[in-house]
Amino acid sequence: MSVYTQLDTQDFISIVKQYDLGKFIDFQGIAAGIENTNYKITLEKSGKREFYFLTIFEQISQNDLNFFMPLLAHLQTQGCRLASPIESIHGEYIFSIKNKDAAIFHCLPGETLETPNINHCHIIGQELATMHIAASSFRQSHDNNRGFYWIQKQINSGQLKLNEADNAFMLEQLSYLQNCWKNWGDDSGLNKGFIHADLFPDNSLFTDENSLSGIIDFYAGGSDYWVYDLAICIMAWCQEASNGFNQALQNAIIKGYEEIRLLSTSEKNALSDFMRLAVLRFWVSRLLSQAQQQNAALTTFKDPNVMKELLVVISQ
């Protein structure tokens, strides 16, 4: 989340009139994240103040939003913990502001985690599996816009502005994973469905040691291998500066996941290579985000070199 599109008080008052949520009180720009503009807004109804999030989608098409908004509503009805979108008085999730699509969401309580522990990892593994199963009953489907072919296209474009050594290393990793991708396509034991594809600690909120309030920011998701989503989650929650991944945290995520959905033998065997793919994907996307973030009034910088160094460790 960041602030790219600036709104003022009159903008918020006009927006809030389209909802049965009360009168507008205040707003605050949110810096965390990368790709969308986000505001925390305070509304008052019947003397009670409530918080909501207003998201302006800077890159996501309306066609994509017409998939994601009903999906989020569906996942909530299936017991998933997330920030669901709110319908306007016109029965719509999406509205337009400054020629961009936007939506209002329930504001989840809790905080993001700076240092996840074993218990947090166990809980997030359970919730990831719950989401996979819940999404399988949603009738619409959506491609993973940042799946393997997107990664391949970005690397081959020559637009990542890498030095010679880093470019050679990236191409070496891509070549290895191209062979893996071919083999995965022939393996019926690798299950597919909707994946979150960006489940980092800053995309979850905990109210205390044992309570996950919910998961946010589903817009990088789409149809792909479920074990790839598990790999992304492990990569995001279990990093260690010099040793790649914390094994105890990784085991906790897998244990939690398998309490809800058992991994197949093929998924277990392919997990380490999917983790390499996960790290490569985020190295690429963070390189691309650097230029975009220069235009944000508030933003959180995520260093692509963290992913490069992690890939060096796990590919040895």
Describe this structure in words.
There is one protein chain. The protein has helices at 9-16, 62-77, 118-135, 148-156, 164-185, 226-237, 247-260, 265-293, 304-314; strands at 23-29, 37-45, 48-56, 95-97, 100-106, 192-195, 204-208, 211-215, 222-225, 239-240, 244-245. The protein is of the alpha+beta class and 316 residues long. It has 2 domains: 9-106, Phosphorylase Kinase, domain 1 (2-Layer Sandwich), CATH 3.30.200.20; 118-314, Aminoglycoside phosphotransferase (APH), C-terminal lobe (Aminoglycoside 3'-phosphotransferase, Chain: A, domain 2), CATH 3.90.1200. A 5-stranded antiparallel beta sheet has the order 1-2-3-5-4, covered by helices on one side. It has a two-stranded antiparallel sheet with strand order 6-9. A two-stranded antiparallel sheet has the order 7-8. Strand 2 (37-45) and strand 3 (48-56) form a beta hairpin. The longest helix has 29 residues, at 265-293. The radius of gyration is 20 Å and the shape is globular. The two termini are 34 Å apart. The mean pLDDT is 93.
What's the layout of helices and strands?
Layout: H1 9-16, E1 23-29, E2 37-45, E3 48-56, H2 62-77, E4 95-97, E5 100-106, H3 118-135, H4 148-156, H5 164-185, E6 192-195, E7 204-208, E8 211-215, E9 222-225, H6 226-237, E10 239-240, E11 244-245, H7 247-260, H8 265-293, H9 304-314
Antiparallel strand pairs: 1-2, 2-3, 3-5, 4-5, 6-9, 7-8, 10-11
Helix pairs in contact: 3-6, 3-7, 4-5, 4-8, 5-8, 6-7, 6-8, 8-9
